[in-house]
Design brief:
There is one protein chain. With about 270 residues, this protein is an alpha/beta fold. The protein has two domains: about 1-55, Arc Repressor Mutant, subunit A; about 85-255, 3-Layer(aba) Sandwich (Trna Endonuclease, Chain: A, domain 1), CATH 3.40.1350. It has helices at about 1-15, 20-25, 30-40, 70-95, 95-105, 160-165, 180-185, 195-200, 235-245, 245-250, 250-255, 260-270; strands spanning about 45, 55, 110-115, 130-135, 145-155, 175-180, 205-215, 220-225. It starts with a helix and ends with a helix.
């Protein structure tokens, strides 16, 4: 078989790549013999596609030597630069939190809290602001809690959109609050010709434009330019989020301990 393989290699070197049928016919090979050759040498490459066949494996004699240490050093520098940039952005974003909180309070949510400084969950699991609506039921036991997550960003980009999309796992609604004018937000593209604004809208993400406002333009104006689509997150995801931030949100004071209303109803019946 080794001699047959060498003959096939020389033949392909002379003629160029050959189909499976051509190889089998030229060298009188059975299916089993053809398949054996396929797995017996690394000097031939099996062609993809219905017809199959062989061509010579590429030769790596002229490939450059990779300086692995230099590559690792470059990667470390890139990661360090990205981390510095991310920390700088986070520090700048915190100044916008109170304005977004004020906007949400004015939008009629039951209560609003800034939690961006308290990273108690994994990456992309910590919204900057939580706006919560609580409907107390008269005839039904318990309360209906609706969670809106708001992520504050200095600018709209693809990473921010997918971070917001991840929040839909534990939020009924999600907003991105972006420090850009509504005209600039709608004009930005993802590098492939698709407007980032349209991408956010397609994923059901609400958009808030934050712009300079007030005396000396030292304040911030928040304007909703797209309303979010309402989601139906899994109950366990909602419960996990509320549990992680229970003390910051003062849930026992605002909603009551778990089962408290049911306990009251049971007490009335006894």
């Amino acid at each position: 078989m080794e001699k047959k393989i060498q003959e096939i290699i020389e033949y392909i070197r002379l003629k160029g790549e050959q189909s499976r049928g051509s190889i089998k016919e030229q060298f009188s090979l059975s299916d089993d013999e053809y398949n054996l050759i396929k797995h017996k040498t690394n000097k031939l490459v099996s062609l993809r596609g219905r017809n199959g066949g062989f061509r010579l494996a590429p030769v790596n004699d002229n490939l450059p030597v990779v300086d692995i240490q230099a590559v690792n050093d470059a990667k470390d520098k890139q990661v360090a630069a990205e981390q510095r940039q991310e920390k700088a952005s986070e520090r700048a974003e915190k100044d916008f939190y109170p304005y977004v909180k004020m906007w949400a309070e004015g939008a009629g949510y039951s209560f609003v809290e800034i939690i961006g400084d308290n990273h108690r969950r994994g990456t992309w699991e910590n919204p900057d602001v939580l706006a919560i609506t609580v409907d107390h039921m008269k005839w039904l036991r318990g309360e209906e809690v609706s969670i809106t997550s708001i992520e504050v960003k200095l600018n709209l980009d693809i990473k921010a959109i997918y971070q917001a999309v991840n929040y839909q796992r534990f939020s009924h609604e999600v907003y991105l609050a972006v420090f850009e004018s509504k005209q600039d937000i709608r004009a930005k593209e993802n590098g492939k010709g698709m407007p980032l604004y349209d991408l956010a809208v397609d994923h059901g993400i609400g958009i808030i434009s934050m712009t300079k406002s007030g005396a000396g333009s030292k304040g911030i104006k928040c304007e909703e330019i797209n309303s979010p689509v309402r989601n139906k997150p899994v109950s366990q995801e909602l419960d996990s989020l509320l549990s992680d931030y229970e003390d910051l949100l003062s849930l026992k004071k605002r909603i009551g301990s778990p089962g408290s209303r049911m306990a009251k109803e049971m007490a009335k019946m006894s």
